[in-house]
Amino acid sequence: MASTYNFYQHPDFEMMRPYWEQYRDLFEGKHKVMTSSKYLPYHQLELQRENQDATLNFPTSAVRQRSELRAIRVQNTNYTNFICPILDIWKGLYFRKDVYLSEDALEMLGDALNDIDGEGCSLQGFLRDEIFENDYLYGRPIILVDAPSADTNDPRAYFTILDPLSVKDWHQDETGKLQFIRWEYVAIPERQSPQDEPKEKLFTRILQLTERGFTSAIYSAEKDDYTAEVKAWHLEQEPIEITGFDSLPIVWKRFGESAVKDYSEEILRHHKLESSLDNGLAAQAWQRLYATGIDNTDAGQVAALTAYTLFLLPEGGTMGQVEPAEPQALERRIARQQDLIFRKAMRQLRALPSDSRAVQAAETLREEQNNMISIIKSRLNDYQVILNDALYFYALYMGVETRGEYEIKLDDDITDQDISQTLMLFQALQTDFRQLPETKKQFLKAMIKDAPIADVPAAMVEVDSANFETPQASRLLQALAGE
Q: What is the structure's pLDDT at 351?
């Protein structure tokens, strides 16, 4: 019987995991995740209180109705992703110019400059889309410098970003030097023929420092064990020793903080508010009529009512209309929430609200711009150190021991004009979010669905492309709302 191995998770990982998972989910914005109870809590009418239902002898239809209410609410909820466009604006400010490499660095990298990760990503793209993105989301970019085979005479080294949520354990000595690191990943093992079913398998890789270099070992576990806290690992590949290294080829920023942390809770609050508004408008998209004075036990009366609501009512019945709720209060609250999100994302907490007519003091603006410039310069310096450390390990794989002649520099010449242009982009983005509110689109779509329109799909497309800030659209919405 093959030996099994047990590994553990670092306390820092366990402490940060729920926060990192939240930042990841807000960034990815997957519908199934963002409409789960974790981010969209149940309303009181949606709760499945099985014990209480049984005690009070609630009919099965009531329990089923709760499930249907939840399903309708989920269907009418759309998550607005703020992080992606905000992140793109920051990337444009940080990396306006390409990285500078010394001649020796250019010669050593060669074609790898445009394929630094072995998957077609350039060094500039890797810095922007991998290092910066992970630093912005998690505050912890982790770069592995590796080579596919240690037996090749001319190994092709490459950079790989490690997701902080995959790096489960590590250890540093009293000087802070990394002694070992362990991360997990899912992959499909090699297949011998097309008839072999592609099955995902869970792997973990461990790099451990030795006197001559470091060892690399790979273990595997069944995919079903992926969510288990304790997994039975089997040795997949015997440890391989790579010599000539005095430290592990890992470059990381361990004590950084996520930039999303500043406004993640505001995004979640906006998500719940927007869901309430979308569902309220969708529920009011049809005229709701109700009847009074009718005996519900009389099947004939009920049949007549449902079949001829607009033409025939049983004797003694009267009709009334449920007036729609006013959404203006929710819309104003959502607008304020969006304003707060962008102010925090821009690190302008003292900025005036977007609907304010007051003018911010020049000294305050200057102070905030200087603060933003200093933060950007500090981060660019961090990225420069990270890239040069990674380049050092790359040089070791390539058999180059001299470090000083191989250098990468980042342009940190950030001016007040650059900051002003970036703030204008943020303001334009904020305006876009308000000009194209999803709630109004959902309102129109719900009405179009049951309207006698010949080409319903074309009408849906027209709604998606509409600008609801135009006078014509505003009048249309007011007419539909009966204003």
A: 47
b/e sequence 148-181, b meaning 16+ C-beta within 10 Å: eeeeeeebebbbebbbbbebbbbeeeeeeebebb
Decide: helix, strand or coil at residue 189: coil
What is the DSSP-derived secondary structure letter of residue 223? G
For 86, 100, 395, the CA distances from 134, given in Å and listed in that order, are: 14, 22, 24
Instruction: Identify the helix (H) or strand (E) that includes residue 420.
Output: helix 416-435
- CA–CA separation, 382 and 371 (whole Å): 17
What is the rounded distance in angstroms from the CA atom of residue 273 to the CA atom of residue 117? 41
Query: Looking at residue 163, what is its pLDDT?
Result: 95
**What angle, 0 to 180 degrees and rounded to 10, lies between the N-to-C axes of helices 83-94 and 416-435?**
160
**Are 139 and 253 a contacting pair, CB within 8 Å?**
yes
Query: In the 8-state DSSP scheme, what is residue 114?
Result: G
User: DSSP secondary-structure letter at 481?
Assistant: T
Q: Quick one: how far is CA 418 from the chain centroid?
A: 27
Q: What is the pLDDT of residue 53?
A: 46
Q: Report the alpha-carbon distance of residue 354 to residue 332 in Å, rounded.
A: 12
Helix (H, G, I), strand (E, B) or coil at 408: strand
Residue of 24, 424, 95 lying closest to 261 (CA atoms): 24
CA distances to 42, 63, 65, 70, 100 from 59, in Å: 21, 7, 10, 18, 71
Alpha helices of 113-200 — where are they, by DSSP H?
123-126, 132-138
Spatial CA neighbour of 133 closest among 262, 268, 258 = 258
DSSP string, 373-393: HHHHHHHHHHHHHHHHHHHHH
Tokens of 302: 């009920």
In sequence order, what are the residues at sequence separation of 6 or more whose Cβ sits closer than 8 angstroms to the Cβ of residue 183? Answer: 162, 166, 167, 168, 204, 205
CB 119 within 8 A of CB 129: no
Dihedral angle of Cα 325, 331, 336, 337, to the nearest 10 degrees: 90
Q: Tell me, what's the pLDDT at 475?
A: 42
- For residue 171, CA distances in Å to 13, 142, 209, 319 come to 12, 15, 10, 73
d(CA 255, CA 257): 7
Residues of the chain with pLDDT under 70: 1-2, 48-65, 149-155, 223-230, 285-325, 348-362, 364-365, 401-404, 429-456, 463-483
What's the distance, CA 134 to chain centroid? 11
Using alpha carbons, select from 118, 156, 163 the residue that is nearest to residue 138.
Answer: 163
Distance, in Å, from the CA atom of 118 to the CA atom of 160, rounded to the nearest integer, reads 9
